[in-house]
């Protein structure tokens, strides 16, 4: 069973499901959940298998489809009769994209933050010699405290990439390319203009192909990979809260 974090409130207007990224954990979204709670949303999010406090070999993903299934179980357990908005960051954006392709009827809205999609050709080149260094915290945000906290966090994975995980990313990229667009599902896409982990130039064309008519695509000038931990995070999280209110 996955570890699942909940942030309930009285009489919520909606459920927001947070989907975290590679190597990290849901506890890093405490401030996001608090801001969404204040705007009338109950919030829930799991640690994916192999991440945070969930079981599994650290940072090993052999197939993203079972992780999408895990996430659906979390949604069905938590939603009651509430409309659901899903917010996926980085690898979580890839998972949320597959979720929206497979189960669009579950969602009232989708938010993708620096989604790790469109990376197949890059990751293919890593298979022979996967990067063995931990992710450099400096690429996450212009606020140095973010990178320092990340480097010191014992629940964050600080090792190198595993070949099966790279292969799973590539397979998921292929599944997204072969899958349907988002149709009528409202979409908010936000990406840091200076994101070096997932360059907007790779992800944005995929998002544009999937996006339906009710879509807002925002590239934040100068922001790095974690737009919810950036120096203008309050504005970005507020944008997510505005979107969640509008679509529910």
Structure description:
- By secondary structure, the chain is of the alpha/beta class.
- The protein has one domain (about 5-245): Alpha/Beta hydrolase fold, catalytic domain (Rossmann fold), CATH 3.40.50.
- It contains 8 helices and 7 strands, in the order E-E-H-E-H-E-H-E-H-H-H-E-H-E-H.
- The protein has helices spanning about 30-40, 65-80, 90-100, 120-125, 145-150, 165-180, 200-210, 235-245, and strands at about 5, 15-20, 40-45, 85-90, 110-115, 185-190, 215-220.
- Strands 1-3-2-4-5-6-7 form a 7-stranded mixed β-sheet, with helices on both faces.
- Strand 2, helix 1 and strand 3 (about 40-45) form a beta-alpha-beta unit.
- Helix 2 packs across helix 3 and helix 3 packs parallel to helix 6 (about 165-180).
- The protein is globular and about 50 Å long.
- The two termini are about 30 Å apart.
- The model has no long low-confidence stretch (mean pLDDT about 100).
Write the layout of secondary structure elements.
Elements: E1 4-7, E2 14-19, H1 30-38, E3 41-46, H2 64-79, E4 84-89, H3 91-102, E5 109-113, H4 120-126, H5 144-152, H6 163-178, E6 187-192, H7 200-210, E7 215-220, H8 233-247
Parallel strand pairs: 2-3, 2-4, 4-5, 5-6, 6-7
Antiparallel strand pairs: 1-3
